Each structure stands twice: as structure tokens, then as C-alpha cells.
Amino acid sequence: MRHHNSLMHDMLKFVPWDRFQQLVDEHGGDHRVRTLDSKSQFVALLHAQLSAASSLREIVSALESQRSRLYHLGVSAPKRSTLADANASRPAAIFSALFGVLLKQAHRGLRRDTRDAIRLIDSTHMPLSSLSGTWASYGAASHGTKMHVVYDPDAAIPVHFAVTAARINDITAAKAMAIEPGVTYVFDLGYYDFGWWAGLDAKGCRFVTRLKTNTPTRVVATRAVSAGGPILDDRIVLLPERLKASRRNPCARELREIIVRIDTGKTLRIVSNDLEAPAEDIAALYKTRWQIELFFRWVKQTLKIRRFLGTTENAVRAQLAIALIAYLLLRMAHAAQTAITSLLTFTRLVRLNLFQFRSIHDLAAAEPFRKRSNEAQMELLIS
After folding, report:
1. Contact between 315 and 308 (Cβ < 8 Å)
2. Which is nearest to 342 in space by CA: 363, 372, 373, 359?
3. Within 13 Å, how many C-alpha atoms sit on residue 373's CB side?
4. Do 146 and 168 form a contact (C-beta atoms < 8 A)?
5. CA distances from 267 to 96, 193, 288 (A)
6. Is 108 left (phi over 0), alpha (psi -120 to 50) or beta?
7. Which 8-state DSSP code applies to residue 138?
8. Beta strand pairing call for 267-272 and 255-261
9. What residues pair up with 233 in beta bridges, in sequence order?
């Protein structure tokens, strides 16, 4: 009888398991491990993301019910306490490094030439329980974490991420990341640091951001703008020579300041080191920043990062890394087939058919299943 693999098996084909094992060995992930190895932990947490399981008990119960199909994945069903211990103590750096490996696969063929590449930078906040207070407390009685992301809007994938406690400023995380020379960086007021802007400029990067309403500038030259358009002013300016405590401003070069009226009637002071591009193009670049907001919304609503499976910093880092890995795998699997155009529809069908004997190329045939009533779906599942 011909053997058929599950959809989960098809999704895991995109993971380079030889490289994964190298990462496990480099970080000592399986050192003195007797029951639940790193691969089984990874598959369990990835299953949580793809199936929308929201607790350790739910993960364990679901995988235990699919024990025979886990055999073909080369993993074992975990015990609840064992999985909790692995999340707390096994290095999350394994999964962060795996994200970097998969990123190269997902990004291959999608990248623009460096001079045309755009990177959006932002962070998103996620609340944590008081049990995470030892590392994630801020304010009087608040606890949370931040995921800092550099996003490629053309490929629609994150190209870098970092996880910190919520009290860490966005600019602090940005200064720790590697800068890609020659690309365009777009960011908001959370990255208001003239020294960092000067560093981007020194590496040949173009940046587009906002000026605070109270930041004074000295106008060097003005440029004509179209009457009645959203661009109210276009000028070449210099920032203040001195900052607080008589420090010299490191960003002493000429900059472009563009005053834009947006749909709500509010005016924005957009600033860039690009002195040549049309003002409309620079304003449009700043507008693309909303794509990273949409990415955060998609990930929060579709994957499982609103509720955490552990309270330690390591467990939170592991869960967020695997959530982004799940996003990359879904993007790659979606790109490998042509029948389903919507990534959201594809993701929902993966969730419904995760342990069915079905290929990613056959999911289009399962779409009518998604549109049936809940009662009809239950009848099909039971049968």
C-alpha cells in the first residue's frame, strides 16, 4: 500500500534538518537530554503556531492523539512538564539561528538590488503576566516584552528580529542591529537619535523618518511644490548645531524636510537625507511604514503570540522565534503552490488539515470544507 505523508510533514520539508542539528550541537541543545530532544520540542512549538494551540496541555493532547503520524516526522509526543522544562532551559538561540537559516531560503530570489531595497523598522509590545516580573517588569505593576523587527515590504518578510523587555527603548535595540549599507530605512519617532541617523548616512543608507513638532531647523533653501496637493512645503534644512549639555550634533549635514498633510488633516514633518528624489516619492516611502504595522497585526491575529506558553525570558524568546519561523514556512509553502492566492486562506486551510494525509498542492480541494458549518466540519472530522 502506498504511503501518504501528512500536511505537517510537507510543511517540515522546508526545514534544513542537517543544519538544524548543527545548530543544536553548537548550542548544546541536546546535552544530557534523555526524553524530549530539540527537534521534538521544535515540532511541538511549531505545531502550536500552525494549529492555534494556546496552552501546553492543548499541545500535548493534540500531539498525543497523532502519535502514529509523529513517527513519520521523526519526533515524539512530549509530556507537559518535560515540554515546559525544555522551553525554560533549552537555548532559544537555536531557534533564532534557525530563523536566520530559513530567512536565506525565503528571501532568495525576492530581494531587490541594494540601492532599491527598503527596510521598515518598528517594534510591537506584548503584555506578560506578573510571573515574568523578574525580567520583564516596567512601571509600578506592568510586565511585557517587545519584538523589534526589520521588515522587507517587497518580499513581505521580516529580515531581522530581536526580543527585549518592554522597558528597553526602541533606539537601543536598533543600535544593536547590523546596518545594511546602501539600503533605505524607514522608521518613526521611536528611533529619534541624531547620532544613529548620522551612522546610517555614513554607511550610504537613505533614511526617511519624522521630525518632532518642537525640533527647530534652519532653512537653507526652499523648493516649489504643487498647489493644492498634500505636499505643503519642501525645503533643505540644517538641524541645531548643539544638543543638550552643549554636545555637538553629529548629524550636521543638510537634510530634506517635507511638510505633508495626510488624509486626517494632520500635518507631518518628514525628514530624509535624500536631497534629490521628488517630495512625493519621499512622502510615499514614509507611508510604506504602515506595512510593518499590518505585518504585526497579521502575526498577532493569525499565529499564537498573544498568550505565552512560559514565563521565563528564554521561553518567551523561543516562542517568538518559532512564531516567525512559522510565518516563513507558511510564506514558502504558499509560494510553492499556485492554487490558493491568499496567504490567510492558505494558513487557515493548513490549520484545518495539519495532520491529514494531504499535500500543500492539494489544499485547494479542501477549501469547500472550510466553508461548511461547524457541525458539518465536526462530522467530517469524526468520520
Report:
1. yes
2. 363
3. 3
4. yes
5. 40, 21, 17
6. beta
7. E
8. antiparallel
9. 259
* Domain spans in the chain, listed from the N-terminal domain onward: 7-96+304-382
What is the rounded CA–CA span in Å between residue 99 and residue 103? 6
CA dihedral 73, 19, 80, 378 (to 10 degrees): -40
- CA 285 – CA 207 distance, rounded (Å): 10
Indicate the SS3 state at residue 120. strand
pTM: 0.89
Which residues are 193's β-sheet partners? none
One pLDDT digit (tens) per residue for the chain, 383 residues: 344 688 999 999 999 999 999 999 999 999 888 889 999 999 999 999 999 888 999 999 999 998 888 887 888 889 999 999 999 999 999 999 999 999 998 877 555 555 679 999 999 999 999 999 889 998 778 899 999 999 999 999 999 999 999 999 999 999 999 999 999 999 999 999 999 999 999 999 999 999 999 999 999 999 999 888 899 999 999 998 877 666 788 998 999 999 999 888 899 999 999 999 999 999 999 999 999 999 999 999 998 788 899 999 999 999 999 999 999 999 999 999 989 999 999 999 999 999 888 889 888 876 654 444 444 443 433 33
Q: How many helices (H) and strands (E) does the chain have?
A: 16, 10
Measured CA to CA, the distance from residue 330 to residue 351 in angstroms comes to: 11
Q: For residue 263, which amino acid is it? A: D
Give 61's contacts (C-beta < 8 A, 6+ positions apart). none
Grid coordinates given for 33: 537530554
Position 69: which residue type?
R
The candidate with the shortest Cα–Cα distance to 152, out of 102, 197, 186, is: 186
Q: How far is CA 5 from CA 12, 18, 70, 312, in A?
A: 11, 20, 11, 35
